[in-house]
Amino acid sequence: MSQKKIFLVFVAVSTVSLLLHHGGHLSWTMEAFHLGCSALRSHPSPGLKPKHTNVAFLKTHKTASTTMQNLLFRFAERNNLTVALPVQACGHQFCYPRSFTTHFVHPHTLPPSIITSHMRFNKAELQRLMPNDTVYITILREPGSMFESLFSYYNQYCQSFKRVPNGSLEAFLDEPWHYYRPDEKDSMYARNTLTFDLGGDKDRPATDVVYAGAFVAEVERVFSLVMIAEHFDESLVLLRHLLSWDLDDVLYIKLNMRTPSSKRSLTPGLPAKIRAWNSLDARLYDHFNTSLWRQLSALGAACVAREVRLLRRAQERLMRSCFGGRMPLLRSAAQIKNKDLRPWQPSAKVDIVGYDLPTNLSRGTSSLAQELCLKLIMPEVQYTRVLLRSQSLRYRRGYQLRPPQQAQPHQQPIRTVLPRHLQVGVHRSQSPPAAPGPGSGPGSTSTPRPAGGTQGRITRLGSRSSQTQAS
User: Fold this and answer.
1) Which residues of 196-351 form beta strands (DSSP E)?
2) Minimal CA–CA distance to 78: which of 368, 403, 434?
3) What is the pLDDT of residues 250-307, one digit of tens each?
4) Is 377 within 8 Å of 354 (Cβ atoms)?
5) How far is CA 140 from CA 5, 235, 396, 444, in A?
């Protein structure tokens, strides 16, 4: 047989093998090409732009950011990347609401490629920590629905909310200054929370349009992508293109959601009052919602719509494979058998729902697939704990192998070893550690300073330098 014929046979065999290997993804890849979209890759291919792996995601409050954090945690594990995690004194957040400093980062999670836990943004400190080519991303939510969620979620912790008679959102908005105290504990949940999370001055008067404009401009300069919670899937399309990620990298399941009974409808007039009280947040949202759709338009409406459909199809396939061929059912914490899959409950008045995996999932399912399904639905606190444990184990192994003169421990691939009580179908016999309350969970302001840590000069994005809010 001539060399030419041998070559053609080789090409034919290779092509058939490739099609078989990629069969589950071929249809949506060809569909994307048909509309002129950038190819949705399921596996890296030679010659394509490599994935960008240095990412700082500012996790804002009540904006679907927990779902995004879970996506980033899983991406980091799949790609053997280090995630910066808080020191234990900070709980699962970077000592929020204090302005972020590198002293809050656990030494076993250095040097990081990704950072995504709650913090108050401090650009100078993050630039000290993260690689120079880090892409900065955050997410915003419509002020009306976000403030209703904050009022409900933190009603038992934020003093500005607690002192309102009968927990009435209407009463608070009728006379906000009667209940609100700018300098007291957890006040950042009661006014311009997004602005505060981004490092800004939450109490700047609405009349200070110069400050507001400069702050929005600075956010736009620092963050390559500002996602919008109401258009989460469309935002993921932009994220995928920005970072050259695969479709598989942006699959998710919604986390940290309230039951319908825990939500209240906004009566006519309330949205306008919320926007007036949170004028800086409203300005941020309006600007970046417009910006998002401008970017989507540049990508092409048909292309974006097609990618969103493909994303949702892939998600449905993944969820059905994890939940025994059915779509998952939301469950209250009391209904979830595995205690380590139970989401934290902020109060008896608010029911945060989660998921439980089928007890028969292990039958005919590989251990890797089981772990993927488990991580897909794991709440923030538990996942942070598991990830810190795995990275600390890798750090210690590397430290033991490190020559005396070597500055950094030998890097080994991250492989999360799930503790026995987190395995599917096997549950912990004793009670889990206490759920994070006001001192260690969302909204903590009483976190002790880590030993040896010193707070440097505060550099706030878009605002004048000032002291961090007192604990």
Assistant:
1) 225-228, 257-258
2) 368
3) 999 998 776 666 677 888 999 999 999 999 999 999 999 999 999 999 999 999 999 9
4) yes
5) 58, 11, 38, 21
Half-sphere exposure of 157 (CA within 13 A, CB side): 25
E strand or H helix at 69, and its extent?
helix 65-78
Six token digits for residue 161: 């909310």
- Contact between 339 and 240 under an 8 Å Cβ cutoff? The reply is no
Do 33 and 113 contact (CB within 8 A), yes or no?
A: no
Q: Which of 253, 310, 249 is nearest to 42 (CA)?
A: 249
Q: How far apart are CA 168 and CA 468, in angstroms?
A: 30
d(CA 191, CA 276): 10
Would you call 353 helix, strand, or coil by DSSP?
strand
- pLDDT at position 360, please? 65
Q: Find where tokens 């004793």 sit.
A: 430
- Which single residue is written with the structure tokens 């030679």? 46
pLDDT of residue 338: 81
SS3 28: helix
| Residue that has been written with the tokens 């795995």 in this structure | 390
Q: Are 197 and 281 in contact (CB under 8 A)?
A: no
**What region does 148 belong to: left with phi over 0, alpha with psi -120 to 50, or beta?**
alpha
For residue 428, count other CB atoms closer than 10 A to its CB: 13
Total length of the chain: 471
